[in-house]
Specification:
Blueprint: H1 4-17, H2 27-41, H3 48-68, H4 78-85, H5 88-106, E1 114-115, H6 116-125, H7 130-140, E2 147-148, H8 150-162
């Protein structure tokens, strides 16, 4: 059973991915986010980076759709989204690899860390207001060094999907 806190948290995540705000997530929503990030980071269509992120995005969508789209209409409602994201295998096999691939893409200087500017690029593409993106960056940057590491990002994704909000 989904608690009210879990439902609220997952619905907030859902709204971030429902790019056009029509109350459902469709592949076009994910395509729009991913293409925006790839354009902002200068990844060229057909490049290894472009293919990797696009492939992971497509895998994310297909897994979400196959595990959540109960009525087979090609759309995922908020209720369907919550059900899919509560499954640990979805988190480990799709959500974390996808998020990390995108973060690697926005690592413009390829130093293995995400700066605040790089982070804001991704969050702006997702439509997150700058003040919210800054707050999230500060939460993820547990060592306070001004950069996000792969481990910090992985831990944040896991906590976002599994830790009850206070």
């Amino acid at each position: 059973m989904v608690t009210r806190t879990e439902r609220d948290r997952f619905q907030a995540m859902f709204r971030k991915l429902d790019i056009d705000g029509d109350g459902v997530i469709e592949q076009v929503d994910m395509d729009q986010v991913v293409q925006e990030v790839l354009v902002r980071t200068g990844a060229l269509p057909g490049s290894p980076t472009w293919r990797r992120v696009t492939d992971l995005s497509n895998k994310w969508w297909q897994t979400l759709r196959s595990s959540a789209d109960a009525d087979g209409d090609g759309k995922v409602t908020a209720r369907e989204f919550v059900a899919a994201y509560r499954r640990p295998e979805f988190l480990d096999q799709v959500a974390i690899p996808f998020e990390l691939a995108v973060l690697e893409t926005i690592d413009a200087d390829n130093d293995g860390r995400i700066s605040l500017v790089e982070w804001l690029t991704w969050q702006q593409a997702k439509g997150l207001p700058p003040h919210e993106a800054l707050q999230e960056f500060q939460q993820i940057d547990v060592d306070g060094d001004g950069f996000l590491t792969r481990d910090e990002c992985t831990q944040h994704v896991k906590e976002s999907y599994t830790t009850p909000a206070s």
